[in-house]
Design goal:
Two copies of one chain form a homodimer. Chain A is an alpha/beta fold. Helices cover 37% and strands 18% of the residues of chain A. The first copy, chain A, folds into two domains: 136 residues, Thiolase/Chalcone synthase (Peroxisomal Thiolase, Chain A, domain 1, 3-Layer(aba) Sandwich), CATH 3.40.47; 233 residues, Thiolase/Chalcone synthase (Peroxisomal Thiolase, Chain A, domain 1, 3-Layer(aba) Sandwich), CATH 3.40.47.10.
Chain lengths: 384, 384
Amino acid sequence: MSKDVAIIGAGQSAFVRGYAGSIRELVFEAFREAVRDAGLTPGDIAASVVCSAPEYDKQRSPAGLLAEYLGLNPQPCFTVESLCSSGTTGLRVAYGLIKSGLHDIVVVIGFQKMSEITSAEAQERMGRGADIMWESPFGSTMPAYYAMHARAHFARYGTTEEDLALIRVKAGKYGKLNEKAVYRKEVSLEQVLNADTVAGPLKRFDCCANADGAGCLILAGADRAREMSPHPVWILGLGSASDSMTLSGRRSLDGLNCARVAAEQAYAMAGVGPQDIDVAEVHDCFTIAELMAYENLGFAAPGEGAGLIREGQTYLGGKIPVNVDGGLLSKGHPIGATGCSQVRTIVMQLRGQGGPVQVPGAAIGLVHNIGGVGIYGNVIILGR
Amino acid sequence: MSKDVAIIGAGQSAFVRGYAGSIRELVFEAFREAVRDAGLTPGDIAASVVCSAPEYDKQRSPAGLLAEYLGLNPQPCFTVESLCSSGTTGLRVAYGLIKSGLHDIVVVIGFQKMSEITSAEAQERMGRGADIMWESPFGSTMPAYYAMHARAHFARYGTTEEDLALIRVKAGKYGKLNEKAVYRKEVSLEQVLNADTVAGPLKRFDCCANADGAGCLILAGADRAREMSPHPVWILGLGSASDSMTLSGRRSLDGLNCARVAAEQAYAMAGVGPQDIDVAEVHDCFTIAELMAYENLGFAAPGEGAGLIREGQTYLGGKIPVNVDGGLLSKGHPIGATGCSQVRTIVMQLRGQGGPVQVPGAAIGLVHNIGGVGIYGNVIILGR
C-alpha cells in the first residue's frame, strides 16, 4: 500500500437548479473552499486539470477561462472528459502528473452548469454521448438505457421495484442532512413507488436530476502533502476501465463490466478487498445503478445486491455505508463536478469531518464513478 | 537527460478537406499505421488518450466510441482538450500515466473532422474557444487575433508583410513534398502578397485551413520501449504553460508568453538549449505565429525572427530547419490531430525516415504546439 500522492484540500459549491452566475463564479465557490482547506494560495498550484463535459454551457475550452479567473496563469491547464466520470478521470490524470515528477501540487476542478439549456436539449446532448450512428438516433436516452439494466437484473435475479425504491428512501434520509444537496427531503417508500414513470421500471424518484455545481480537489506528492497537511488523505488504489459505447455490444446488462474491472485494479493496487472498505460513494445516477454497484464492487455477490438494502446494510451502522451524503439522487448530478464531490465526501469521512453522517473510525473509503451507461468506470480507494 | 518514456509508433491519416467517412474510419487510418509501425496489437495497449476539441462533429465523448471500434475495451480511455494543442497535451498526460507506473503502453489519438459543419459555423465555434463574455461576442476571430499580433510585431520591430510571406513560400516548398498534406503546391512571394485580405495584414495564404485528419502516437516506458522498438524516440523534455484567455489581459502582443515559459521548462528538463535543436515543428496556424515561435523558442532574439527567414536559416541546410513537412499552412489544421502530426514528423526525422526532407544526422528535435491564441502552449523535446 503505497502513499505517494495525497488529497490535501477539497471544496464544493452548493449543487443547485439554475445557478444565477457564470461558470467562473460557480467554480470559484468550490476552488476557494479547497484552497482554504489546503492552506495554500493559487501561486502554490503547479497545474490545473479541469473536468467537464462539453456542450452544456456555451463557453468552450473552460480550462483556459478558469485558469485566468482563478489566478492560475502561467501554470499549465487543460480539460479532461469521460462524461459523468470526468471528475475522477481528472484525479487519475493529476495522480500521473504528480507521481511522474512533472508537478508537485495539482488542482482538479470539476464543474457543470447544465441550466443554460432546456431539459430537452440536455437530453439530446446526453443522447449524443452514446453512439450517434447506431443507437442515439433511435431514441435511446439515459433513463431508457438504465431501465434496460433494471429489467435485465429483475429478470435474472428477481430484484423488484421495491428494492430500487428502498435505495431512494436511503438517499432521501441522508440528502436531508447535506446542506449542499439540491433535494433535502425524505421520501417514503410509497411516494417512490407511486411516482410517475420515466422509463419503466424507473420512476421519477429513481432518477437523479440535472444540476449546476462545482467540486475541487487539491493533490500533492508525498513530501509536500506531509509538510502542508495535518490530515492528508492518500490515494491507495486507482482502477479505470471502459466498455463498448453501444449497449448492443455488451455481453450482459445485469451489471457494468467497466466497474468490475476497475474495482479489481483498485483493490489490487491498494492491497485491500471489499471487506476492508469502511465507507463508499457509488454512482447512483439511477437507483438501479447503486444496486449494480453493490455487486460490481464486491459488497454483495452477483444477484445479491438487493439483500444489502433490504437488510439496511448500506445505511450508517450497517456492513458498508453507501452514499451517506445523499448520493446523486439527492445531491443532483452536475456531470463534471460529480466525481470531485464523491471524493470530497470520502475525504471528509476519513478525516472524521463527516458531521451527522460520520462513519465512526472510517480509515479506508471507496469512490465508484461511472461515465455514460457504463462506458467509463473509475474506482478509487482512499485511506488515512 | 532522462530516458524514461519513448515514442515507439507513429501514424497519420491524410489531412483532407471533406473526409467522406466517419470519425471511426478517419482515426483508424492513423491508428493502423501507428500499430504496424510499433509492431504490436491493440491488446498490447494498456490505455488510450483521445485528443479532440468538441463541437465540430456531432459525436460527443469520442474516446468511448473509438475504444470500441479500435478494439481497446476494457482498457481505460478518456478525452483531453486544450484547443489546437490537444494532441501534445495528450502526449503529456500519457507520459504521466506511464512514468507514474499506472500503464506501460499508452496510445495517444488526436483527430478532428471539421467538415461536418460549415466554415461560418467553425468560425463561430472557434470564437467560443475565446472568452464568450468579454471578447468573442464582439467579433473576435482567430485571424483577427493573430492579425493583432502581427501588427504589434510590425510596430515594435519593423517586421513586414514580406517577411510573413517568406514563411508561406517555405511552407509551400515543403508541403509539395508531403503526400499527406492538403495543399501540395508551391506559392510565389507575389501570390502570397497579392492574395485577398482575411484580417489585415494577414492575407489568404498567411492563414492555415480547416481540415479533417487524425494522428496517432504509441508511447511506452523505458523497458518496453527498448524491448519492442529498434528506434525508440525518447521524450527528453516537456514544457507546458498557459496565458489569459482574454487577449486584453496580456502584457504584450508581440509574442506568446505561454510558449516562452513552456520552452524554458522543456529546455531545462532536457538539459539542452535552442542551439542544440536539429529540427523543429512549430505551430504555424498563421505565418506570424511561426515568426513569433522563432523568437519565443530562442532560435532568434526577440525582434530578430524575421532575420532567420530572410536569410533562409529555417530551410533545410539552414541553422534550424523549421516545418519541413509544410507545417499547418500546407498540411491543414485538424485541431486535435495537429500536435500528433507534428510529433510524428519529428519522430520520422530522428529515425532518419524523413525522405526528401530529412535533416542529415538529426538527433534532437522540438515540437511547439499552441492552443487558442496563446492560451495553451506545449513544447516537447525529443531525442534518439
